[in-house]
Amino acid sequence: MNETPAGTVLIVYESMFGGTRRIAEAIADGIRATHDVTVTRVADAGNVPDDVALLVVGGPTHAHGLSRPESRADAATWVAKEEMHLELEPGFDGAGIREWLKSEPRVTRHAAFDTRADMPRIFTGSAAAGIDKRLTKLGSERLAEPMSFLVDRKSHLVPGEIERARGWGVQLAALLSPAAAR
Questions:
Q1: Which structural domain range is residue 163 located in?
Q2: What is the residue-averaged pLDDT of the chain?
Q3: Contact 177, 38 (CB under 8 A)
Q4: Which residue of 11, 24, 51, 114 could cross-link 56, Cys pair, CB 3.0 to 4.6 Å?
C-alpha cells in the first residue's frame, strides 16, 4: 500500500548568493524519499498547481524580514567586495518572495524557512516568520514551525546547515504522511 498522499510538494525560494537555493535543494532531498517534490526559483513560480499538498517557501532575511527591491539591489554591492567571495544568483534582482506572496498563492498546508545571520534572532529578524504569517492569513495551515538556517558574516552557510535542512525535509515529509494525521 502506498503511504504517499495524493499531490506533490512545491518548494519556492528566493536566493541572492546561493545559500537559500542550496537549503531549498537540501530540504527537497529530505522530502524526495517519500514524496514528489519540485524546487523552483520565485521568479519562475507563477501560480501554485492544484495538486500541491505542501508549499514550502523560503528566502533570505534582509533588515529583519523579507527582502525588498532596495535590499536586493544592495546585494550587488556585496559581490564587488573581493573578500566576500560571493556570486549573484540568476534573477536575484527580480521580484522576490514578498512580491510573490502578494499574488495570494492558494494552498492547504505550508512550511516556511529562511537564511539569516548566525546571531540571536532578536538582532536579525526572520523572513520565515513573515512568510508564515502571510500564508496563514491566506488560510493555509502551518505544517511545521518556521525554520531558520544560518549564514556567517560573509553570507556563506554555516557548516552543518545543509545536513540540518535535509533533516528538516525528512521531518516535513513525515508530518505530511497519512500516518502522521492519525
A1: 12-181
A2: 88
A3: no
A4: 11
Q: Has residue 158 been placed in a domain?
A: yes
Residue 182, pLDDT > 50, answer: no
16 domain residue, yes or no: yes
- If one compares 147 and 105, the residue with the highest pLDDT of the two is 147
Domain assignment present for 2? no
pLDDT tens track for 103-130? 998 899 999 999 998 888 888 889 999 9
How many structural domains are present in the chain? Answer: 1
CB 138 within 8 A of CB 106: yes
> Does any domain span residue 63?
yes
Residue 84 to residues 34, 67, 80, 145: CA-CA distances in angstroms? 38, 20, 8, 31
Residue 146 and residue 131: Cα distance in Å, rounded?
A: 9
CATH number at residue 99: 3.40.50.360
Rounded to an integer, the average pLDDT of 13-35 is: 95
